[in-house]
C-alpha cells in the first residue's frame, strides 16, 4: 500500500507551468481516495447480500447513497479539472504510456461525471438500494405489480442520467449508459454483433432441438453440501484464486465482489440434490475473482490502471473459466477423477468422461437466464438488451414489461413463462438501477471465445494440462494479456492486442457449432 | 428514516437573528451525515472481526482512517460552529428539552473536535487498525516484544491527543481521553470510587479464598456447538433482542456492534467441552445489543439523543444481563429447566438449581479478565486503569509494561502470569488505540448494581418473572429509564434520574457481599 506512483513524480517541470508532476501526484491521491470510498461501497454491497439483517435495508440504502455522493463529489471537484489540465499540458508526462493512460481515462470519467447533477447520483443510489429490497419482496410472493413503481422510478432516473450525459455523435441515449459498462461500445454495434450471432445461433439451436439429447440423469446424484463446498474451494484454489486474500461464502445469488487489494469475495449457492450444482457457478465467480486479484490494486488503488477494462472483459474471464474450461472435455476428465476420489459412491465410479462432458453441454431452452446453456444464454441476453432499450426510449413502460417479456420468450425460445419469478423478476440488474449492463454478458462470451482461440494458439499443450488439473498456463496467459493492463487500453485496443483482431461473432459461433454438433453427434 | 426532527422546525425566528430553526435542521442534517459515515465505520469494524480475509488488513486500515477523517471533517466544519451558535441564540429552541440536549451535546463534541488536528485523527485510526493486526500476530506467537513498538506508537498518539484536548480545570491529561467514554468523569473520581470498592472487595475475596468453593465439575459437560448456539439464540430472543434487526455470529472475541438502525450484530465464542461456555458471553453482548436496539436511531440517526449515554452505561446494560440476571438464582432455575429439556442427558437431568447457581458464582482469581468472576473482575480493571494512566503520564514505557503488569497481578490477585497472551497481550483495547476505556468496565458494574437495586424496588415480582423466563419487565424498565433517553442527560443526571442518587460503590459491594457470602455459605 501507499507506493509512490512512479519515480519521476518528484520532478518539477519548468517554464510557466510549474508543478505538473505534483499535479499528477495530486491526481493519483484523489483517485486513491475515491477508490477507498468505492471499495467501502463494495463491502456494503457484499454485506447486503451475505450478512445484513432484513431490518437494516433502510440504513444501507442511505449509506450507499452517501458513499456514491462522496465518490461523485471527488470525481467532479473543480480542482480535479485543474489537475487534469495541468497533466495534459505536461508533454513529458503524457509521453509515458502508463501515466498518459491514467490521465486520459480520468479525463473521460471527469468529463462524464460533471454532467451528472449530484442529487441525481445520490437519488439513483438510494432508489436502487430500496428497489432491490422491494424486488426481493416481490419475488418472494411472485408479484410483478408491487415492483412496477420501483422499476419505473429506476427507469426514469436512468433516462434522466442518459439525458444529462447526452448521446455520442450519431448515437442514442442508451449509449450514454452502455458507456458505463463497455467504454466506446455503441448500441448500434451491439445490434450488429448480436444480429450476426443470432443468425448463426437460431439454426444451430433448431438443429439440436431435433436431435437426441445426451442423458443428464447423473446430475441428480446427491452429494452433501459440505463436501461440495470443499470441492469447490479446492477447484477455486487450483484455478489460482488466493483464499487468504478472499472468501467463498453462501448467498442466494452467486456473486463476486472485489472489495479491494487483498479482499475479493465470492459466493455460491448449493443444492445437495445436484452433484455439480454449484461448481460451474463457483468457477464463474472465481473467474471474476482471478481478474480482480490480477489487477495491480495494491500499488494503484483507485487508478484506471488498476480497474477492469470493461464489464464485458470482466464477464469474459468468468465465462472462460466456467464454460470454455469448465465445460470442456479436458477439464471433465480431471474433474471426474477428483469426483470419484471424493464421492466414493458406485454411481459416481460408474460415470465415464464422455457422459459427463456431453451431459454438461446439453442445450435446452428454459425460462431462466442463469440456468441456461451456452447457446441459448445469448438469446436471453438479446431479449433483455432490446427490452431495456425500449424502456429507456420510453417505448415500453414498466407496467407493460412482463407482457412484452413473456411474448418475446415464446417467440425467441419457445418457452412459456408461467410466473413473474421465472420471467421479468428473475434478474437483479434493473432493480439495482443498472441499465446498459445486460449486453456485456454476450459481449463477454464473444471476448471469451476470441481469447480462447488465442490461448489455443499460444499454449499448444493446453488440453493436456487441463486434463491433469494444471490451470497455471491459462491463468498466466490471462494475467499477462488481460489482467495486468487494467484499463490501460480501451476494450477494442485490448481485444486487438490480446487476440490480434477486432471483436467478432465468429469465434463464438465457431466454438459453439463445433462443440455442440460433436456433443449431439450431428454431422457438421 | 428521514423523519423531520420536530414539527416546529419550519418556524422562523424574528428580529435580527433569522433562521435559527433552519440552523437546527441543518445541525441535525450534518449530524445525520456524520452518523451515516460512523455507521459505515462500525460495519467495517464488524467485518474486520468476523469476515475480512487476512490479506485485507492494509486496505481496511486505510478505509477506517479515511472514514474517521471524514467524520472528523464533518464534526469540525466551520459552518457547523455557526449553526451551533445560531441554535444557542434561539431561546425558544433552547427551551425545548430534547433540542437543547442535542445542541449542548453537539457543542461539547464540536469544541473538543476542533482541538484535534485532522492528520492526528487520521493517523490514530490508521495506526490503530494496523496495531490490531500486529497485536493479533504477536498474540499468536505469544511475543510481547514484537507488539511493543506498535503499542508505544499508539501511546504517543494518545498523549498527543490528550495534549491537544487539554486537561479540564484541576484535572490531568488522562481526563481528556476518559471524556471520550464517560463524559464528565474524572480520573480522580474514578480513583475515589475504585479505592472505596477495593477496600471492601479485598477482604471479601480473602474471606472467600479461605472457604470451601462450590463444585464446578458439571460445567465440563459436553454439548455440541450447534445446540449451544440454538439455545443462546433462544435466550437472546427471549431477552428481547430482535434477530430480524440483528445477527448472532461466531468470532474469536465476543462483541456487539450497533451498526445503525435495524442492524445490531452480536458474536459469541463456543466450546463443545463447556456446557454453558458461550451463554453468559452472549447474554453480555445481547445486553449491549438491547441498549443499541432501544436507542431511537431510526428517527434520530447521528443525534446525541440516539447515542448511548456513556461507555459505562453501555457496559452496565451488558453486565446487568450477564451477571445480575444471568448469574442470579431465579434465572438459573428457568435455565436449568430449559437445559434439561434441550440436552436430554442423565448428567444434566441430575443437576439441581442450587449446584448450578453456586457453580456459576465461584470466585477464583485468574490471569484473564474476561474469564474472571464478578468480584475479582474489578481488580483486573483497576490494574489496567493504573497502568494506562502511567503510560499516558510517561511514567511507564510500552517496553516496561509486561513487567509492571505481571508484578501487579501477583500483588493484587496472587496470580503468576506465565505468558504474554495471559498477561499484557490479552486485551485488544490498547492495540485499537483506546485509552481511558478500561475504567468504564467497573463503572458499568457500579451502574448495574445501582440500577439493579432500583429494579428490585420497581418490580416486586421480578424474581418470580425471571424464574419463569419472563424478561419483559426488566427490559421495559431499562428501555424507559435508560435506553430511550440516549444522551439526553449526562451520566450523573441519568444515574440520578434512574436510581435516585449519585454513582456509589455501595450497591455493588452490598450485592457482591450478600450474594457471595450466601453462595459460599459464610456467616454474614
Automatic annotation (TrEMBL), chains A, B:
* Highest rank taxon of the organism: Bacteria
Q: Which GO terms describe its biological process?
A: proteolysis
For this UniProt record, the keywords arranged alphabetically read as follows: Carboxypeptidase, Hydrolase, Metal-binding, Metalloprotease, Protease, Zinc
Positions the record marks as coiled coil are none
**EC number(s) given by UniProt:** 3.4.17.19
Q: InterPro entries of this UniProt entry? A: Peptidase_M32_Taq (IPR001333)
Residues that bind Zn(2+), according to the entry?
Answer: 284, 288, 315
UniProt xrefs under Gene3D superfamilies: 1.10.1370.30
| Family matches, as CDD domains | M32_Taq
| EC class of the enzyme, as a word | hydrolase
Residues the record marks as active site? 285
Catalyses which reaction?
Release of a C-terminal amino acid with broad specificity, except for -Pro
Cofactor remark from the record:
Binds 1 zinc ion per subunit.
Which cofactors? Zn(2+)
Q: One MF term in GO for this entry?
A: metal ion binding
Describe the family membership recorded for this protein in Swiss-Prot or TrEMBL: Belongs to the peptidase M32 family.
This chain's function reads:
Broad specificity carboxypetidase that releases amino acids sequentially from the C-terminus, including neutral, aromatic, polar and basic residues.
Q: What is the protein name stated in its UniProt record?
A: Metal-dependent carboxypeptidase
- Please name the source species: Longimicrobium terrae
Amino acid at each position: 500500500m501507499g507506493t509512490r506512483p512512479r519515480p519521476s513524480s518528484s520532478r518539477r517541470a519548468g517554464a510557466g507551468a510549474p508543478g505538473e508532476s505534483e499535479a499528477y501526484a495530486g491526481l493519483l491521491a484523489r483517485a486513491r481516495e475515491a477508490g477507498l470510498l468505492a471499495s467501502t461501497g463494495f463491502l456494503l454491497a457484499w454485506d447486503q447480500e451475505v450478512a445484513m439483517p432484513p431490518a437494516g435495508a433502510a440504513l444501507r440504502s442511505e449509506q450507499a447513497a452517501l458513499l456514491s455522493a462522496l465518490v461523485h463529489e471527488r470525481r467532479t471537484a473543480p480542482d480535479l479539472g485543474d489537475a487534469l489540465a495541468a497533466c495534459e499540458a505536461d508533454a513529458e508526462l503524457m509521453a509515458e504510456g502508463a501515466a498518459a493512460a491514467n490521465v486520459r481515462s480520468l479525463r473521460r470519467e471527469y468529463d462524464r461525471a460533471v454532467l451528472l447533477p449530484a442529487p441525481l447520483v445520490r437519488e439513483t443510489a438510494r432508489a436502487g438500494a430500496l428497489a432491490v429490497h422491494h424486488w426481493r419482496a416481490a419475488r418472494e410472493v411472485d408479484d410483478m405489480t408491487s415492483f412496477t413503481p420501483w422499476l419505473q422510478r429506476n427507469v426514469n432516473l436512468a433516462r434522466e442520467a442518459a439525458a444529462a450525459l447526452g448521446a455520442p455523435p450519431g448515437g442514442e441515449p442508451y449509449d450514454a449508459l452502455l458507456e458505463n459498462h463497455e467504454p466506446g461500445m455503441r448500441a448500434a454495434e451491439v445490434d450488429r454483433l448480436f444480429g450476426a450471432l443470432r443468425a448463426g445461433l437460431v439454426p444451430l439451436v433448431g438443429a439440436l432441438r431435433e436431435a437426441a439429447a445426451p442423458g443428464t440423469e447423473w446430475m441428480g446424484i446427491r452429494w452433501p453440501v459440505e463436501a461440495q463446498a470443499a470441492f469447490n474451494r479446492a477447484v477455486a484454489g487450483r484455478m489460482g484464486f488466493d483464499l487468504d486474500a478472499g472468501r467463498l461464502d453462501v448467498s442466494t445469488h452467486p456473486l463476486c465482489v472485489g472489495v479491494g487489494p487483498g479482499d475479493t469475495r465470492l459466493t455460491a449457492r448449493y443444492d445437495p440434490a445436484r452433484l455439480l450444482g454449484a461448481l460451474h457457478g463457483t468457477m464463474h465467480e472465481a473467474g471474476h475473482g482471478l481478474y480482480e486479484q490480477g489487477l495491480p490494486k495494491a500499488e494503484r488503488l483507485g487508478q484506471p490502471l488498476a480497474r477492469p477494462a470493461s464489464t464485458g472483459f470482466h464477464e469474459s474471464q468468468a465465462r472462460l473459466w466456467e464454460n470454455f474450461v469448465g465445460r470442456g472435455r479436458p477439464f471433465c476428465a480431471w474433474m471426474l477423477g477428483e469426483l470419484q476420489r471424493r464421492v466414493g459412491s458406485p454411481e459416481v465410479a460408474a460415470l465415464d468422461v464422455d457422459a459427463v462432458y456431453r451431459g454438461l453441454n446439453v442445450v435446452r431452452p428454459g425460462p431462466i437466464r442463469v440456468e441456461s446453456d451456452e447457446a441459448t444464454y445469448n438469446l436471453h441476453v438479446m431479449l433483455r438488451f432490446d427490452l431495456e432499450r425500449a424502456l429507456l426510449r420510453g417505448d415500453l413502460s414498466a407496467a407493460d414489461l412482463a407482457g412484452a417479456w413473456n411474448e418475446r420468450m415464446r417467440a425467441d425460445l419457445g418457452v412459456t413463462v408461467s410466473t413473474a419469478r421465472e420471467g421479468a423478476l428473475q434478474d437483479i440488474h434493473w432493480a439495482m438501477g443498472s441499465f446498459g449492463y445486460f449486453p456485456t454478458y454476450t459481449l463477454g462470451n464473444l471476448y471469451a471465445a476470441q481469447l480462447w482461440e488465442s490461448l489455443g494458439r499460444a499454449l499448444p499443450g493446453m488440453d493436456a494440462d487441463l486434463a491433469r488439473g494444471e490451470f497455471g498456463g491459462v491463468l498466466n496467459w490471462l494475467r499477462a494479456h488481460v489482467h495486468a493492463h487494467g484499463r490501460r487500453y480501451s476494450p477494442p485496443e485490448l481485444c486487438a492486442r490480446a487476440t490480434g483482431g477486432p471483436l467478432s461473432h465468429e469465434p463464438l459461433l465457431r466454438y459453439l457449432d463445433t462443440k455442440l454438433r460433436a456433443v449431439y453427434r450431428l454431422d457438421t
